[in-house]
Specification:
The chain has helices at residues 3-38, 114-125, 135-138, 142-150, 164-167, 171-189, 206-209, 212-224, 248-262, 280-295; strands at residues 69-72, 79-84, 89-94, 101-109, 130-133, 154-157, 196-197, 228-229, 234-235, 267-273, 298-299. It has 306 residues and is α/β, with parallel strands linked by helices. The strands form 3 sheets. Strands 4, 5, 6, 9, 10 and 11 form a 6-stranded parallel beta sheet that branches. It has a 3-stranded antiparallel beta sheet with strand order 1-2-3, with no helix packed on it. It has a two-stranded parallel ribbon with strand order 7-8. The longest helix is centred in the first third of the chain and has 36 residues, at 3-38. It starts with a helix and ends in a 7-residue tail after the last strand. The structure holds zinc ion (ZN).
Length: 306
């Protein structure tokens, strides 16, 4: 046998070895991405039993945030096709009706830079969120407010001025302030928002606690007029004043969400902010969303809160 033939045969014999080596390398790279991105316990493809968000749509099978599992359009029902990029396998899963429900809420927007970034991320994952809008701010960015509504998110009321000393001075001042906010949203979008409210600084704001008569009067008004108000069960902690290490807010929030789930909570309301002064919110948001999706949690807006 000539030496050329011998080399060819050797190459042929080595092919399976090279192929196996390539596959092992690919798997190692894949595992390393998974560990960095989502933590070691995350399944690559959720079981049918873990459930998945039925509204997840991702037109781009190359998931923009480095996940190896992409979710593709599901026009009917709650069956979801998951496409795994490395194996090329489509797997169908069914949303678990008992899956924990995550309500992402963003306060104090709209904002010039953060809102578009947040909207893009939510769109990437095909999930919807609740935006507690400040009326005075909405007047600055009417197009962004319209875009938020057009993309299927819930616009809710966070008052017009967000000035605690004014709005909590009397129940009439507060009522006028939230009515102004709803009018602004209605005028800009052409749609009257649902009566869903978050008190500026929360329903236990210090200014309200100092004046129980005003607080009780406001609460009575809200009850009598079909309003629902929401605080939050976990916070992203993004209202800090200096930049945290990348991912720090996300991993703390993930831990808080998982603790809530472990304690049996089914409905988890997440407080986050939509202001340009807190650019770390959209930076960490994809990490939180990917973790929740991989755990089989579903995303909802507050108008569906039980
Ligand atoms: Zn606020």
């Amino acid at each position: 046998m000539s030496s050329i033939m011998s080399k060819r045969n050797t190459r042929r014999r080595n092919r399976p070895v090279i192929l196996v080596g390539f596959l092992v390398m690919t798997m190692l790279m894949f595992c390393s991405c998974t560990l960095n991105g989502f933590g070691p316990k995350t399944p690559l493809i959720p079981d049918a039993s873990t459930g998945f968000n039925d509204t997840v749509i991702n037109d781009n099978p190359q998931n923009p945030h480095g996940n190896n599992t992409s979710v593709v359009t599901n026009p009917n029902g709650n069956n979801v096709l998951l496409y795994h990029e490395l194996t090329g396998v489509f797997k169908e899963t069914v949303e678990d009706p008992n899956a924990p429900r995550i309500y992402l809420t963003f306060d104090d927007g709209p904002s010039k830079v953060s809102t578009p970034k947040i909207l893009e991320i939510l769109d990437d994952y095909g999930i919807k969120a609740t935006f507690f809008v400040v009326g005075r701010t909405a007047e600055y960015y009417p197009d962004i407010l319209r875009q938020t509504l057009a993309e299927g998110h819930l616009l809710a009321n966070h008052g017009y001025s967000h000035v605690y000393s004014t709005i909590y001075a009397s129940s009439s001042a507060f009522i006028q302030d939230i009515q102004s906010c709803n009018s602004v949203i209605a005028n800009i979008t052409g749609t009257t928002p649902k009566r869903i409210l978050r008190f500026p600084a929360g329903s236990f704001a210090v200014e309200l606690e100092r004046n129980p008569a005003v607080r009780d009067s406001i609460r009575q008004y809200l009850r009598d007029n079909g309003w629902r108000y929401f605080d939050w069960t976990v916070s992203m902690g993004d209202s800090i004043s200096s930049a945290p290490p990348p991912g720090a807010l996300a991993y703390d929030l993930i831990a808080a969400i998982d603790r809530s789930v472990a304690n049996g909570r089914k409905d988890i309301v997440v407080l986050a902010h939509d202001v340009d002064a807190k650019p770390w919110t959209p930076l960490d948001l994809p990490i939180v969303i990917e973790h929740c999706l991989n755990q089989g949690y579903v995303f909802r807006t507050l108008d569906t809160y039980p």
